[in-house]
Amino acid sequence: xxxxxxxxxxxxxxxxxxxxxxxxxxxxxxxxxxxxxxxxxxxxxxxxxxxxxxxxxxxxxxxxxxxxxxxxxxxxxxxxxxxxxxxxxxxxxxxxxxxxxxxxxxxxxxxxxxxxxxxxxxxxxxxxxxxxxxxxxxxxxxxxxxxxxxxxxxxxxxxxxxxxxxxxxxxxxxxxxxxxxxxxxxxxxxxxxxxxxxxxxxxxxxxxxxxxxxxxxxxxxxxxxxxxxxxxxxxxxxxxxxxxxxxxxxxxxxxxxxxxxxxxxxxxxxxxxxxxxxxxxxxx
Length: 284
Fold this sequence. Notes:
CATH superfamily of the largest domain: NAD(P)-binding Rossmann-like Domain
Strand content: 5-15%
Structural class: alpha/beta
CATH topology of the largest domain: Rossmann fold
CATH class of the largest domain: Alpha Beta
């Protein structure tokens, strides 16, 4: 792929990760723009790009990535001087492409490019982009250009149909921040029964990593472990009694997650219908 005439509009964590990753590949963005001049200057210096105004960024590039907050996408798209044939792409997971309607009305090609990775630490995010996926929504010829950008970054393209972004992005949370909710639940229970909170996370993280590693090699059903996977209703009953005794929602949270495991246990072929129904009755 030839070097991109690319601008980053927005200089936050996502822009920093993309900029650093492209710089590492020898294809840094041409310019960086932000409402914060300081942020644009800092990122531009790190990736050997030029800092400029938003209007100058649009004039300088054939492909503009809007790496601004979701609520700002439509406003920014409406106020900039797009030209026919230019490409403008937002990097939001949940916002539909029609937020770029003002750019499309001026003849720009519009789309979405959402890397599926965590960017709370931009330096780590840049490294972890390699081998991650990116959801792309665009028509040709922009689609081909975005697939090319994905390949430069080492991302695996996924093609998202129109109107699916909110559901797609909401579901992605289960593999991201919702994992933290489950770890927090485990830590709360451990703390309630006397285990030290300050040691809990370090004890649980290797278990979580082992589960994810098994899922990568064996699939979800193949990686399933624990009492539900064995059909061990006695252990599940003791879990429920202990968690219900703690009060709050500990028991109900366990029930909901365990019910979701029943279909995985069925898919794994380890339990017969009788064992599955015995567990279902216990968890209802």
